[in-house]
Amino acid sequence: MAVLLDENSRVIVQGITGREGSFHTKLMLEYGTKIVAGVTPGKGGQEVYGVPVYDTVSEAVEAHPEANTSIIFVPARFAADAAYEAIDAGLKLVVVITEHIPVHESMKFINYAKQKGTTIIGPNCPGIISPGKAKVGIMPGHVFKPGSIGIVSRSGTLTYEIGYAITKEGMGQSTVIGIGGDPVIGTSFTEAMKLYEEDPETEALVLVGEIGGDMEERAAQMIKRGEFTKPVVAFIAGRTAPPGKRMGHAGAIIMAGTGTYEGKVQALQEAGVKVAKTPFEIPDLLKEVLKK
Amino acid sequence: MFEYEAKEILRDKYGVKVPRSVLIRKGEDPIAKMKEAGLEPPVVVKAQVLVAGRGKAGGIKMARTWEEVKEKVEELFNKPIKGIVPKLLLIEEAIPHDVELYVGIVIDRSERKPVILASRYGGMDLEEIAKEKPDSIVRTHVDPFIGLKGYQARLIGKKIGLKGKALGSFSKFLTALYNMFMDYDGELAESNPLALVGDEVIPLDARLIVDDNALYKHPELQKDILEETGEYTEWEIKARRLGLAFVELDGDIGIIGNGAGLTMTTMDLVYEYGGKPANFLDIGGGADAEHVKTAVSFLIEFPKTKKIFMNIFGGITRCDEVAKGIVKAFQELGEVKKPIVVRLAGTNEEEGRKILRENGIEAFVDPIEAVKRLMEL
Lengths: 292, 377
Prior knowledge:
Chain A is an alpha/beta fold and 292 residues long. Chain A has helices spanning 19-31, 57-63, 76-88, 103-116, 157-168, 189-198, 215-224, 261-270, 282-291; strands at 11-14, 35-39, 47-48, 51-54, 69-72, 93-96, 119-121, 127-130, 134-137, 146-153, 173-178, 204-210, 232-237, 274-276.
């Protein structure tokens, strides 16, 4: 078991012939991910690292009916179209790596995906990995090891740092989801938490948040309501970030007094969550909560 | 987008009745232009700046006579509004009214839908309304595929106290504002105040903020407005033009990281150990030596920094590339008096640290050790 992604996932890479797409196809194959097809309009018939390329997702799915997952490396202008294409082809999980997609476009394809029963991760995210099973994303595979800790994160690099800190302390991860740094994303903290709650392999969860929005507060409310019962450790980036400034991620901005570091930490602590001051305290806090 | 542009769009593309007005540049004769446009005092003279809270900062003046028009125009052209001197003024007919309403549209991040905010108490900004009259704010979500329906708009109108024919006028205006928000990829579309004049609503102000990522869809809007917004400092504008994700802060320790979350965390770590970050600078994922060089050189030249802390966790980013970029920056700038401490971990970390040490730059694996060393310098 794991969340959303496991050894049965069969993956289509959209934008497979591009620089990023082909590079990460190679890394994902090396990790052991079962990539069954790639799609780039106009490049049908080619191969990328032995993976057959099709012009459209529907052709790829016809030739490989076992496909259930897609990862999108398509440039921002064409990424929404690629997402609709994957949703319409009936794929159940669509990971959107692309950054700088207009927020109106993301909003629309995410609403559409909900109607069709497709889970979107991202946009502007590092993807998802279930260590030892499969990786559908751009994260360095070697920093994660199979284990029982779930990680849900709004950040990329910081997730690798935290994953690595956990791995070094002899623990491992069930599934790690980088949900993305945009204001509107397909899978929120609370939506991911519902999945981890049901996953017998996950014993504890790490939430990696940042300033902006209210996802952390909503996670805290969910825990308070008793809808998430596993131990949670959190870290929030941006304690020293000033209001009104976008801190790299489009979604990382304190506006009109909402989305502050203090507000998030307080909400989480009130829900009984241990909040780490630095990412490097997380392994110790995890050991503490797991002992109980 | 400037007020006059948003109003032009509302009028010309969506058929909204907006106050009659004339736009003037510095040096133009306001009286002649007003007469040409058939305008007479009383009028409102408004600085065309993009800063929020323009009215409170003194950027809007009433002129009751021709004499006052001259005075106010002269005054506003020479008066910086939150640091920004207007290049354009909008002279608009004064519209007597009793009630000022608020309407705004944004995207609700958690619902992933547009949400319309409306209040009976316009004139003050939304934060003030939220503080003083929180119960007056009516929130309505709209399905982005179905769009705003007339009944929803009328219901909002009802809830903010409108009756009779005014409901129709409000509904028509709100639909126009919503359509503009959707057609132009708005982050925000707002009218505040929206005046109630008899049975009719008239937008006294209009704002539209377009998502930067969507500007390619609207080539007619694309222009360099970094300086106009008053949101960016001189060095932030410089950084943007170099393609760097940089935010200026108050401290004196330069910060570079890869990835927004890690860079923020690096700022927080420095703060935790008693330092004050001078900036946020994210080199992003997969940066090559050239990009690293640009970032490091920029931060060395940035006058606020006394020392620099660089925190890299290499996933896609290769530590040897990062090290090469740092060395190159120092070589090209020659004598640099600013010390730098680098933490390098992840892909090719040993190679990276070796390159740095060979060039006399301190390199660490453990970020805590690195930040402690930084604070000693």
